[in-house]
Amino acid sequence: MVDASLAEWLLDSDPALRWQVERDLLGAPEEVWRATRARVAREGLGARLLALQDPDGQWAGGAYFPADFDMRGPEAAPDAGQPWTATTWALNTLREWGLDAAVLAGTAQKLDANSRWEYDDLPYWGGEVDCCINAYTLANGAWLGADVSGLTEWFPQHQLDDGGWNCEWVNGSKRSSFHSTLNTLIGLLSYETATGGAEALRTARKAGEEYLLERRLLRSLSTGGLVGPWASVFAYPFRWQYTALRALDYFRAAGRWDPRLAEAVEVVRAARRPDGTWLQEERYPGRVWFDVDVPPGEPSKWLTFYAARVLEWWDVATR
What we know:
single chain, mainly alpha, 13 helices, 46% helix
């Protein structure tokens, strides 16, 4: 799938990335990539993040924000970026890196006892009012074996008429958001994969897919223009922000080939450099425990992996 020199460069990486390269780009035997995946808990990025967990099961003492985050201070200014160190972001990251949930045995129970959302002091596994946060909670709960059954009813009930979701629904928004819809779709798919899901959730997810497909993952339905410059940005780590690459990776994971994805695929293809790599274009601002990828302007192994995997899936499925 990739040439030898690019494969060697990608393999010279942290276990959190290497096992995925082995499995998805190089077709390594299962015993090979599973052995690499098991190293995520013991070394490198995964081990560093695990070591930062608080005794009460949380990270940074908070559910979505660190305990010391000043909601009115300079760190909360729009251009400062939100912090990425609290519990939900740590769980998202470890899950996406492939950590075995057994390594976090007891964490679901600790969070049930000790963690409350910053919004209305609501219990952690019950979620709150933000659909992105609830999608993360649904996925993380299914991964860790928590009871998130209440959230399976929440998403169909809060789906908007155009088929998507918007975290601003609580403030009266009636139009869906690319960001909120994609985060919700990823959470629903993760839950379905882990548990088998439910028909109502699958129906809601398919409608959410149509919301993005009708807009070709890039365009406003009303004007036909690009929905925003953020849609074509290449940035890792992925956060809550929508990008065409993230959306394409969702459709790949969902096994949903559709000709309306073609324009977004070409955005990814056009960004590939002659040596087969993709550049880091942006680093989302905000407090982090440690950097996990290169600064903007440098070739990113993570983005190269995600982009190459998407293009391989698309090209094979198209043929």
